[in-house]
Design brief:
The strands form three sheets. The protein has a six-stranded mixed β-sheet. Strands 3-2-1-10-11 form a five-stranded mixed β-sheet, with helices on one face. A hairpin with a 4-residue loop joins strand 10 and strand 11. It has about 325 residues and is an alpha/beta fold. It is built from ten helices and 13 strands.
Length: about 325
Amino acid sequence: RLDIAVSYDVLSASYPVDAADNDCSASELEEAPCACFGGAARRATALAGNRTLRLDGGNYKAGPSLFSPEASQSLFDATNYSAWTLGPRDVEVGGAVVTNGGQLAQLVSIDGVTVAVLALVKSPPLPYQETLTAAFQELYIHVDDHLGQPDAVVLMLDGVSDKDIDSLNAANETDAIERLARRFPVIDIVIVTRGAFQGTSRLTNWAHRPVVVVGVDGGPTSISRIRLDTETAAADVDVVELGCRVLDHPRVRSLMDRFKEQVDEELAVSIAGYVDATINASTVGNLAADALAWKFDVDVGLVANYSLGRDAVWGPGRVYDTQVIDMM
């Protein structure tokens, strides 16, 4: 049996968030942990296990976050993933080398079992089946002398493009994924991280070997765990929500808290409201911003200039909607 834990689309969400998807404060996490979700420390615990293949399907650092990319990378490293791939946002932001659109195999040992992890990023320059053929050739030319031939092969798939649906003569994305799984007899499991494929599909490839295709959930506040029987290709899949029932990984929590303290120091000024463009666009806007700062007892109040962008002079008495609209 092979146990697999998968995360993807973390999107730099290193610290737990509340129900409104805002970062929890350190005091909120300490006093009301069940009101906070996700975070690197819980994710590390949910993925952990000496006999578990820990995979990330990409887009780990590609997202808005107050944590620096270096902090996200440190937390990623501390999670101790067995293998990883790229996501579409990773490719968009650059800095990653992708051979023919697919990362070639990573060989890892899990409790004495050698596993090859292949990964394909959606919309590579070549069709998936050509890219995957090249990846397998590379794998068996450069098999690690220490680990030897793989006992199991895992393919991580980032959905399927229209080009690949046409290349595989498939009716739709799900059909294309299943055709791809049947075409390569050494694949034991295809893990689909994005796209239309949902659930689990057990297939027989052209060499009459079983292969299973699994669609998994991801995101900042959950991971998926798969229990795979490599002999029968039977797979059970569970989604683990990263709530307060998941204990923090101590080492990752310490690292996460340290980065949070750095962020809080850098953002020591409290702000109410928001701004989109010009500062001091109108006196009325300044008055509204001052009122926000007074009301919420913060250091700076901001109002978008397209909301109160014009000054107006009114006499005493009732203020009408048309007058307020005229200032916008």
